[in-house]
Amino acid sequence: MPTVAIIGAGPSGTSAAYQLAQASLEVLLIDTKTFPRNKACAGVLPPRVLLDLEVEGLPLPKDLVQRELEGYALVAPSGRMALSDFACPGAVVKRSELDNWLLQRAGVGLVQDTIDGILEDEDGVTLTGRKDQYFADMVIIATGAASRLGRHIHQERPLMALTHQFELKMDTSEIKKRVGNRFWAFYIVNGGHAWISPLRDSLKVGIGSVAPGFDARKELMHLIKSGPIADLLNPELDPELDLEHDLEHDLIQEEAGLIPMSGPPQKLSTSRCLLAGDAGGFVFPGTGEGLFYALRSGKVAAQCIKDHGTQAHLQYQSMLTSAGLLSLRDVDHLKRTMATPEASERYVSSLAGIK
Ligand SMILES: Cc1cc2nc3c(=O)[nH]c(=O)nc-3n(C[C@H](O)[C@H](O)[C@H](O)COP(=O)(O)OP(=O)(O)OC[C@H]3O[C@@H](n4cnc5c(N)ncnc54)[C@H](O)[C@@H]3O)c2cc1C
Fold first, then answer.
1. 164 in the same domain as 154
2. pLDDT tens-digit readout, 124-182
3. Does the Cβ of 39 fall within 6 Å of ligand 1?
4. Fewest Cβ atoms closer than 10 Å to its Cβ: which of 142, 161, 258, 267?
């Protein structure tokens, strides 16, 4: 049985670790950070993530659910709104809590180190960390959107959305009144969108775009002051007030991050390394949804190694295709949905239940 090193203990890495440990393979899980750690995220888990976790044997613990989600509200540039309801509830979670639980679920000890180098030869793979060197037969690279380790496999430059997000305090009763149990996506930004995600007693309000020179924080401040987001957050808000000052009072935390928007690259493996999660571009560009794809691609990478050992690279693309993960390579999706206000208007209007 091959020994497997997994670089990155986010959802894709720990999903792979869980599957491999269940099959009694020797797993080395390495992350730069000690856990629990935060990751910029709106924390939205659609029902299919919850169903997958249940099918895999351990449902998401109830106390991790900040809020049950009943669906999405999509807002077009004109203000028209499309509601889409889930068949069963989704959830909003805090990433520090979700990722720590996924790590516990994997049941694999975490080695805290930053991997800077990967060297492959016929005997295996040597990973050079800042603290130590590691050797494995196979490696899963699950280092997220900001990592450069993917360059070990391909030289494509993925299109990235720059994002910024505020977590703002709000009473549960006010959240119920203004936002409800929905994730709101506002298609009012060229090359991206803005969003509101309701937690137990706070909101994540964020924005992201691939537009060149996009100043995510500045655009977010602007949207919080006027327009449909401002109307939801605080209908009585005076547009003249000093928002920086006012925000300080309600601000719990500020986060920034990258979202891969161009889908998986053509090359996703070398003879001994497989890419998974954000590092492999497994994100749906229409919503920036990545958690489902991170968990799934980590699972497929693990399954591929379980089934094919050191020959896994020969089967990885076809197993990803069977799992539906390579359809994320729809490069025109962004153009059709977010490149211009007209495209966004058409996109939201095309969805069922326009209100
Ligand atoms: C603002 C924002 C909001 C989002 N909201 C949502 C949402 O609501 N729902 C959703 O489904 N998706 C959302 N996403 C996307 C989602 O966060 C990602 O798709 C998901 O985190 C990908 O998981 P991952 O395991 O691939 O990577 P990550 O979660 O990024 O984990 C990668 C891990 O690798 C480690 N690492 C990196 N480099 C090294 C190295 N050299 N050596 C060792 N360790 C390393 C990191 O420390 C990290 O722990 C959002 C993204 C952003 C930026």
1. no
2. 999 999 999 999 999 999 999 999 999 999 999 889 999 999 999 999 999 999 999 99
3. yes
4. 267
Does 78 fall in a domain? no
Question: Has residue 304 been placed in a domain?
Answer: yes
Do 40 and 256 form a contact (C-beta atoms < 8 A)?
A: yes
Residue 53 and residue 30 in contact, taking contact as beta carbons nearer than 8 Å: no
Whether 45 is covered by a domain: the verdict is: yes
Q: How far is the CA of 10 from the centre of ligand 1 (A)?
A: 6
Same domain for 195 and 140: no
Residue 191 beta carbon below 6 angstroms from any ligand 1 atom: no
Is any atom of ligand 1 closer than 6 Å to the C-beta of 147?
yes
Closest by Cα among 131, 124, 93 to 295: 93
Cβ–ligand 1 distance for 42 under 6 Å, the answer: yes
Is 106 part of any domain? Answer: yes
Cα dihedral 223/227/228/230 (nearest 10): 60
Q: 48: domain range?
A: 4-66+94-158+262-330
β-strands 138-141, 133-136 pairing: unpaired
Q: Are residues 174 and 192 in the same domain?
A: yes
What order of strands is seen across the sheet that includes strand 202-209?
44-45, 81-92, 67-75, 182-189, 192-198, 202-209, 160-169, 251-260
